[in-house]
Amino acid sequence: MGLSRPYAISKPLQLEEVSLDPPGPGELLVKIKATGLCHSDLSVINADRPRPMPMVLGHEAAGEVEECGEGVTDLKPGDHVVLAFVPSCGGCIPCMEGRPALCEPGARANLAGTLLSGARRLRARQGSLYHHIGVSGYAEYAVVFQRSAVKVDSSIPGHEAALFGCAVVTGVGAVVNTGKVPAGCSLAVVGLGGVGLSALLAAVLVGAGDIIALDTSSSKLEVAARLGATRTVKVGPDTAREIREITGGGVDFAFEMASSVSALQLAYEITRRGGTTITASLPHPEHRLSIPAVQLTAEERTLKGSYLGSCVPARDIPRFTRLYQQGKLPVNKLLSEIVSFDQLNEAFDRLADGKSIRQVLKIE
């Protein structure tokens, strides 16, 4: 972690052959077909979100089940799966409330770099390796907990299916689950990476009225316009005032997807009285947001977090993939580059520079 840029030179990611133990009880061996490059991976590389090292990164993945551990009954070899990055236990209070993204044992395991059982199945010459949030998808194979895998239609190409493991569930879920955005309302998305543009696609899907896309990148704004944004605004010093003027006081819903406190501040400032600001990004844990506390009461404002799009993966990933197959959620348009193992470091330079939307490591 924390090596200097450019990563093409410092090479924080190194390609090695490692060993993988067989799946234990309740676990699966999955042949990985593709894994996306996400800001959550970058935040480990740049040390914004420290994790134990050495670690096999990658969490937005899709593949095919090769072997089932003892006790696995709902999946079988040959099933195509999308991997969710929170391995829910099913028995803690959040899981029983239907909020598996907040699974408490899953969060502890992810922080520790283990599978839900506490085990580590990856090994190298120097000893055991750590898992990245229950997936470790920058590899040809992965051992995962059974509730990290959701069966999907085998006709969906792996490099497209992978997007449903993070970008789609996070962005679409924030709109339909966390926000429960009604048709006809006004909506803004701040930050137009894979997650932000997934949220924009969801806004179009639910029939939002005025859909405003905001970013510092002109090329991303052009993509947003093609995907259904009714207005695009390049972020500058007077953006908040501009949005409030053109909307008559702000939008009903503002979604922040840029992993930046300044972006969240902007999203809050462009939300109208009585409106809702939702963030699904992960800025540095030491960064703080400052807002006038009185606004929450006097203006009946709502500020919410959304993790994994408030999704139940076993319910929502099949729903979202069906919408994609019906042409109602064209997430394939988010793909910007297909990369190989030896191009990962350069690809993370592009991600850090904001020059890509969604890059995918294709293994199949």
Unreliable residue stretches: none
**Helical stretch count?**
13
State the CATH architecture of the largest domain: Alpha-Beta Complex
Secondary-structure-based class equals: alpha/beta
Tell me the radius of gyration: 20 Å
N-end to C-end Cα span: 28 Å
The CATH class of the largest domain: Alpha Beta
CATH homologous superfamily title of the largest domain:
Medium-chain alcohol dehydrogenases, catalytic domain
Q: Please give the number of β-strands.
A: 18
What would you call the shape? Answer: globular
CATH third-tier fold name of the largest domain: Quinone Oxidoreductase, Chain A, domain 1
Task: Explain this structure.
Strands 2, 4, 5, 9, 10, 17 and 18 form a 7-stranded mixed sheet that branches. A 6-stranded parallel sheet has the order 13-12-11-14-15-16, with helices on both faces. The protein has a 3-stranded antiparallel sheet with strand order 1-6-7, with no helix packed on it. With 364 residues, the chain is of the alpha/beta class. The protein has helices at 7-10, 39-45, 93-96, 104-112, 158-161, 167-178, 194-206, 218-227, 239-247, 261-269, 293-298, 313-325, 344-352, and strands at 19-20, 27-36, 55-56, 60-68, 80-83, 122-124, 127-128, 130-131, 141-145, 149-151, 187-190, 211-215, 231-234, 251-256, 271-279, 302-305, 335-339, 358-362. The mean pLDDT is 97. Helix content is 30%, strand content 23%. It is built from 13 helices and 18 strands. The protein folds into 2 domains: 7-165 and 330-362, Quinone Oxidoreductase, Chain A, domain 1 (Alpha-Beta Complex), CATH 3.90.180.10; 171-306, 3-Layer(aba) Sandwich (Rossmann fold).
